[in-house]
Specification:
By secondary structure, this protein is of the alpha+beta class. It has twelve helices and eleven strands.
């Protein structure tokens, strides 16, 4: 009965959730995008060293077992579509990540909005993100649901957004020149100076986020949404490097009321460079004791075949809904969050096993 009671308790919020999903699709249809499917079960998920996929066994009719994973993002599939000639595409559906907390900003099963534009760079995606969020917030502010939303947050989403480079942000908040801290050695010293105790062998990204997550992120987007762009090159992931300064990458993230909403790239199209980065990330995964699996060779071949210049973004829909409704916990905007699937003792036991 607890499932029904959870839904009854959050019925008004869930109605708004479903309305926001309708508005998202309406905006993309208006802008000429095509909604696409992506396989949820994949043989080789992404290699990001901070994301753990859910592993599963898939059996055929003869009982033969194949190792699969629930996708953490539709990114690889959508880039294969771009290489095959698709142009403006979006995906709105479920993604899965293991070893996530149950509640606050996270749920192991979550709704992802991902879209791509061929022949464009991340500046076009910045404009898209602003326009989409503004459309959703304004539509709800003027409609029958206006008394159910957080009017202050809706007004902020509907207004002007801030854009700032990562280098400018560190200078403003941390008071340092990021150019002086683009190596793990230099950044480790800064972490120690600021009272952190990094473990031996932590890589640049781990050190970077010690400062960023504790000193910078909680302050972001409190007055209005903020786009932070041009990440250090060693954190480029699947993005292209900046043409004018190869020390940085054409990657940006959107933050609002102290939480990350989206992550975007001008996409890397060089197959050899991408293979080198994926190989490096695979090594980092092994070093951190995470699941290790093969690199998706078909993804690399798609780039080699000819991924056009393109840009894309992944936006956390549940967090966007939370911000529009003014909710503090993701569980309040989900039909059945993970925390409702097991009782607290079972969850505690599973956490001890992990």
């Amino acid at each position: 009965m607890k499932h029904v009671l959870h839904i009854i308790k959050n019925k008004q919020k869930l109605e708004l959730r479903f309305e926001i999903l309708k508005l998202i699709r309406k905006w993309f249809e208006r802008e000429g995008f095509l909604e696409v499917d992506a396989p949820i079960i994949v043989s080789e998920p992404g290699q990001e060293p901070n994301i753990e996929p859910m592993k599963l066994a898939v059996h055929n009719e003869k009982g033969q077992a194949f190792v699969g994973y629930l996708h953490t993002s539709p990114e690889y599939a959508m880039k294969k579509m771009l290489a095959a000639g698709f142009d403006k595409i979006f995906y709105l559906g479920k993604c899965f990540r293991d070893r996530e907390s149950f509640g606050h900003n996270h749920n192991p099963e979550f709704t992802m909005l991902e879209w791509y534009r061929a022949k464009r760079d991340f500046l076009a995606i910045m404009d898209d993100a602003e326009a989409l969020c503004r459309f959703a917030a304004k539509s709800l502010s003027q409609g029958k649901y206006k008394k159910r939303i957080d009017t202050a947050n809706a007004a902020k989403l509907s207004g002007g957004w801030q854009r700032i480079s990562m280098r400018e942000l560190w200078k403003k908040v941390v008071g340092v020149e990021l150019n002086d801290f683009l190596t793990a050695k230099a950044l480790r010293k800064l972490c120690v100076q600021r009272g952190f105790k990094p473990a031996n062998g932590e890589d640049y990204e781990e050190l970077f986020y010690r400062i960023f997550l504790n000193e910078i992120e909680p302050k972001l987007g409190m007055d209005r949404p903020i786009i932070v762009y041009n990440y250090p090159a060693c954190m480029a992931s699947l993005s292209s490097l900046c043409k004018k300064d190869k020390r940085y990458a054409e990657r940006f993230e959107v933050y609002f009321v102290g939480s990350e909403l989206a992550n975007a790239f001008t996409e890397l199209t060089n197959a050899d460079e991408q293979l080198a980065r994926l190989t490096s990330e695979r090594v980092a995964r092994k070093k951190r004791g995470m699941l290790v699996y093969d690199i998706d060779a078909e993804f690399v071949e798609a780039l080699r075949f000819g991924l056009p210049k393109s840009a894309g973004i992944a936006l956390g829909v549940d967090r966007l809904i939370m911000s529009i409704l003014g909710c503090k916990n993701i569980n309040d905007v989900l039909v059945l969050p993970m925390s409702k699937l097991w009782n607290h003792e079972e969850i505690k036991g599973m956490n001890e096993m992990c």
